[in-house]
Amino acid sequence: MASKSLTVDNKTFDISYEILNASCKKDIIFLHGWGSNKDIMKNVFSPFLKDFRHIYIDLPGFGKSPNEYELKTEDYVKITNEFLTLLNSTKDVIAGHSYGGKVATSLNPKNLVLLSSAGILEEKSCAVKAKIAFAKFFNALGLGKITKMFRSSDVSSMNEGMYATFKNVVNEDFSNSFKNYKNNALIFWGEKDSATSLESGKKIASLINSSTFISYDGDHYFFVKNAKDIAKRVENGIL
Fold first, then answer.
1. So what's the pLDDT on residue 179?
2. Class for domain 2-121+173-237, per CATH?
């Protein structure tokens, strides 16, 4: 494991990362989802894709990459792109899980691999709608501290900068970003995913012209049990 310091828009970030198969000429970059870290991706995919230099990254605010700034997805894209430039990455393949899928798409790699990507707005459950309504009510009364009890488990332990970041990115509609991606895409999904529905995956596939869609029996982390097959399909399906 290593760390690189970089500055983007007058903000300094220390990015934790790990590289495997360092002598390989082609790169595959792995971007984790919200609330996750590079180790999950590394533990799953490191035994495979031996012809690629693997680059595992902790996005700012996750794993061992600290962050207290309020960010937007466009900031994550800038930061990740600058980081990959420092590593002289060719961005042959970028694989993104959940929130990492939005960042991966915006980086416009030669080959895009989406694993139950976020980016399609879905109808919120009644429970979530109720939490949002209560939080807005207490905020209007100037009782902001009380709203912390209504926060999602995804952000309950995060600092204020990351909570603000979460609010910035959670309801983004990336439909146009998917539609505007013109390169090769492999889209993998869990058929029982309750975080990003199977229908969202099918919609993303319909938006990206040059895409292949494959689903597996599993939830939001379906790729843990299907990494070998996914890796084989990536090897056979990239340009």
1. 98
2. alpha beta
For the chain, which residues make up each domain, given as ranges?
2-121+173-237, 124-171
* One-character DSSP codes across 103-162: HHHHT--SEEEEES---S--PPPHHHHHHHHHHHHHHHTT-GGGGGGGS-TTTTTS-HHH
| Interval 209-219: pLDDT, tens | 999 999 999 99
Say what the pTM is.
Answer: 0.88
CA pair distance 139, 145, nearest whole angstrom: 8
- What angle separates helix 223-237 from helix 38-45, to the nearest 10 degrees? 70
Q: Is the pLDDT of residue 145 over 60?
A: no
Q: Specify the pLDDT at position 1.
A: 75
Q: Which of 103, 96, 94 is nearest to 72 (CA)?
A: 103
Q: How far apart are CA 136 and CA 126, in angstroms?
A: 15
Residue range 34-48: mean pLDDT, rounded: 97
**β-strand 184-190 against 111-115: which pairing, if any?**
parallel
Residue with tokens 């029996």: 217
